[in-house]
Amino acid sequence: MRYLITGTAGFIGFHLAKRLLDDGHFVTGFDGMTPYYDVRLKERRHAILSRSNGFRPVIGMLEDKAALDRAADLGEPDVIVHLAAQAGVRYSLENPKAYVDSNLAGSFNVLELARTVKPQHLLLASTSSIYGANEKVPFAETDRADEPMTIYAATKKSMELMAHSYAHLHKVPTTAFRFFTVYGPWGRPDMALFKFVDAILNERPIEIYGEGRMSRDFTYIDDLVEAIIRLMHVAPAEENRVNDGAIGETLSRQAPFRVVNIGGGQPVELMRFVETVETAVGREAIRIMLPMQQGDVPRTFAAPDLLQALTGFTPTISVEEGVRRFVDWYRTEMKTA
Ligand SMILES: NC(=O)c1ccc[n+]([C@@H]2O[C@H](COP(=O)([O-])OP(=O)(O)OC[C@H]3O[C@@H](n4cnc5c(N)ncnc54)[C@H](O)[C@@H]3O)[C@@H](O)[C@H]2O)c1
Fold first, then answer.
1. Burial (0-12, 13-18, 19+ Cβ within 10 Å), 44
2. Which residues are catalytic?
3. Which backbone phi and psi does 187 adopt, to 5 degrees?
4. Among residues 27, 71, 170, 314, which is most buried (max CB within 10 A)?
5. Is 186 within 8 Å of 174 (Cβ atoms)?
6. What distance in angstroms lies between residue 99's CA and the mean position of ligand 1's atoms?
7. Between helices 65-75 and 107-117, what is the axis angle to 10°?
8. Cβ < 6 A, ligand 1 pocket
9. Count of CB atoms situated within 10 Å of the CB of 162
10. Which residues are CB-contacts of 110 (< 8 A; sequence separation ≥ 6)?
11. How many angstroms separate the CA atoms of 159 and 157, rounded?
């Protein structure tokens, strides 16, 4: 199969592309190498992918429709997976425009591209952040999710809505997956695990927000990639309708469109996460307890039932195992301690 993946120099896009290339597929990888975090890490990820003959990297910004068109011409994709985005909750307070540019204007260009390319399936990365501070847990796809707490969440929710209208008008089967705190080797330096491990190994303090009382439903990267690959094969269509009253109606009535959580439904308290990191590193952290940051949500908690019903799969790798694998990777690849 031929895939066009946006965001292949990023954490998740790299892992998805690697798995597909290892399985013998062709991947065109589109990425703008944005300087949100160390570009050398992005270049290293692309260098690894470039060892595969099936990989074609295209460096360009989503906002540049002509560059996206060139990427599609190279690969004539059967499936498009749109992962490139301005990610991060906290940075959205500092630089909201980056989110509007990449996640609204950029995603619009991907929808326009899909309208002409007509892939068998278009898959888009959304986020658990769109559930905001919902109190009903676990978060189900049928719950209301229209009280975003940050411009990051607002742009992702808007992307879902734009994608729904395009799926209705142009009949491209479209799945928007809502990811829940993804972590693992080659992960993002702006995320807690990377920052904690780096600080502990270098004897710097770690900052613990919400006085440690937040919880997150962590998803290990290999579980996430497995879920994405399985979901690729169940494009939203009548024959893939889920007949389970408990889950509720998740296929749009107006379009070949649905949203799917990818999370295991096993939230972890932040303090347990910190202890897990300390155990894996073999050293105690110097802890600075801080209040909740603006825009932070107290908890995330995925209902995994729809994912399970569609794919027969639920993420299972524990944080103890996943963090241990991250620390092993960090020690070999980031050359510290
Ligand atoms: N990692 C998580 O926990 C998580 C959780 C929820 C949702 N997501 C979503 O998953 C997707 C992938 O996230 P990630 O963790 O791999 O992030 P990442 O920042 O590592 O990867 C995103 C990639 O997109 C590229 N990019 C950003 N803006 C671009 C633009 N305008 N044009 C071209 N390229 C651009 C960046 O250079 C980067 O390589 C994103 O859409 C993100 O919002 C991630």
1. middle
2. 152
3. -75, 180
4. 27
5. no
6. 11
7. 40
8. 7, 9-13, 31-34, 42, 61-63, 83-87, 102, 106, 125, 127, 179, 181-182, 188
9. 16
10. 6, 62, 68, 80, 82, 122, 124
11. 5
Q: Are 209 and 294 in contact (CB under 8 A)?
A: no
- Is 108 strand, coil or helix? helix
Phi, psi for residue 278 in degrees, rounded to 5? -60, -45
Cα 37 to middle of ligand 1, angstroms: 11
- What is the distance between the alpha carbons of residues 66 and 89, in angstroms, rounded to a whole number? 29
Q: What is the dihedral of CA 130, 136, 141, 146, to 10 degrees?
A: -40
- Closest atom of ligand 1 to 106 CA is 31
Which among 46, 69, 104, 127 is the best mutation to test ligand 1's pocket, defined by most ligand atoms within 8 Å of the CB? 127
pLDDT of amino acid 336: 55
Q: Using CA atoms in the order 162, 165, 168, 170, what is the torsion angle rounded to 10 degrees?
A: -70
List CB contacts of 44: < 8 A, sequence separation 6 or more. none
Residues of the chain with pLDDT under 50: 337
Q: What is the pTM of this model?
A: 0.98
Structural domains of the chain in order of their starting residue, each with its CATH number? 2-185+218-263+303-311 (3.40.50.720)
Q: Is 51 exposed, middle or buried (0-12, 13-18, 19+ CB in 10 A)?
A: exposed
pLDDT at 325: 98
Report the distance separating Cα 94 and Cα 98, nearest Å. 9
The span from the CA of 313 to the CA of 144, in Å, is 25
Instruction: Say how many Å lie between the CA of residue 6 and the centre of ligand 1.
Output: 9
User: What is the C-alpha to C-alpha distance for residues 147 and 77, in angstroms, rounded to an integer?
Assistant: 35
H-run or E-run covering 1: none
**Which residues contact residue 26 at a Cβ distance below 8 angstroms, ignoring those fewer than 6 apart?**
1, 2, 3, 54, 55, 56, 75
Query: What residues contact residue 206 under an 8 Å CB cut-off, 6+ apart?
Result: 195, 196, 199, 200, 274, 285, 286, 287, 288
